[in-house]
Structures are given as C-alpha cells and as structure tokens.
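Changelog-linked ticket: calcium ion example.
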Amino acid sequence: MRRTHRLAAVLVHFAGVLSILWLALAPAQAQNPPVYPSPRLLTIFPPGGKVGSTVEVTIGGLDLEEATDLYFSHPGFKAARVRDPDPNKQGQFVANKFNVTIAPETPIGIHDVRVIGKYGISNPRAFVVGDLVEVAEKEPNNDVPQAQKVDLNTTINGAVNPNTDVDYFSFAGKQGQRVVVSCQASSIDSRLDPQVQLFVAGNPHPIASNRRYQHRDAVLDAILPTDSEYLVRVVQHTHLVGGPEYFYRLSV
Ligand SMILES: [Ca+2]
Ligand SMILES: [Ca+2]
C-alpha cells in the first residue's frame, strides 16, 4: 500500500515536471514558426495589352518557382506558357514568360492577375486592357535625338530603370489639335511617381507639365500651338528611385 502511494507521488511529481517543461518550451516554439515560401508577384511586363490581342508578358517577384499559369479576375483572359523556339531545347518552357490572350469582349480597364506556381498562388497585380495600339518602350530614349517616335493614340509600356532614366517620345502634331497624355503608375501598382512634360521640338520650355493628377498617375492636356514635332518626357520625380517596379503605361 505504501509502495502504491510512493509510486503515485512519483507520477504526480513527474507529471508536474513535464507540465513545467511544456510551458517553458511552448512559447519558444510559438516564436519560431516554420517559414514557408510565399509567392509574391511584383511585376508583370508589359502591365497590359490591347483588347482582342495576344501579348507576351514576363513576370517578376519572389518565390515564383515553377510558375505554370496566370489567374485573372475576368474570364476574358487566357494564359499559355511560352516555349523556347530553340530546336535544341525540344520545346521546353521559358521560365516566367506567358502569352496572354485578351478576348474581344473583355472590359477596357484595370483587372487583377495572380501567378500559380510551386508554392501556391501569389498576390494580385494590375493588368490593364486598353483600346489603343500598344508598343514597348525602346531604350535608349534618354535624350531628344533618341526620342522614340510614336503615332497619336498609342499606349507605350515603359519603365524608369534605373533611377536616372529619362524617357523621350515624339509625335507629329497639328496646330489646334487637342492632345491628352496620361501616365498610369500608382493605379496599376507601380512604384513610379512620374513627372510628365510636353514640349514643342526645339523649345526647352514645356507647354504642359503634370505630376500627381490623381494619386501618382499623371495626366496633361494641351491644345497644340503649331504644326510641329512634339516631345513627351517621362522621369521619376527627383530621380532618387527606379527599377523594374517603376513601370508605367503612357497613352498619347
Ligand atoms: Ca525607360
Ligand atoms: Ca530612357
């Protein structure tokens, strides 16, 4: 009987020690949870395309390994992985590149896109459907003689990369013509804070300039004073930051 009591006392003591150990260890475990990769989509470039067209996009971000598909907020989009055209690669997929087909009935405006990959689905990023002709920015376009020629009613997909990047575009304008230049930045999840200016070619003083028309999107509006070549200049305000996440859509 006495041995039974002693055994019970030992068991109670042991249970107490275990409880103290558990309490001591539990907070330590809570402070160090296992870290799993978390897919983060930072850039998709170009960040949009013309309705009814197919556009090749490149995605960038973190933990996007084995990206197999893009998931859009509207059913009008279809994404297909891009295959390497090199016959020696036997049709292997090119990492992080997709052909996005935008059906003709897809609404014009800003949609969301996410990436599906090895570690699950990413955060959303904006993807814009436009109704103008789209072109990619062609660097170098850093000074007036290098200005990239565009037609009116064009959307240019560009980036301020690196921070000191200056982007010039030129178009032919007629006296009395009204021109609206819009530069989408924060509305499409870009970090850019663009300063946009419009010049008559050969005159260093801008005829219109804008920054932060709405949030960090810029819009300027001008009646053209003469038949001439015109220049649009896009920079990051104060030139302190830039990079792939400083993309924009400039519509002229
Ligand atoms: Ca640029
Ligand atoms: Ca440039």
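Closing comment: Example verified and attached. The two ends are 97 Å apart (CA to CA). The chain is about 10% helix and 45% strand.
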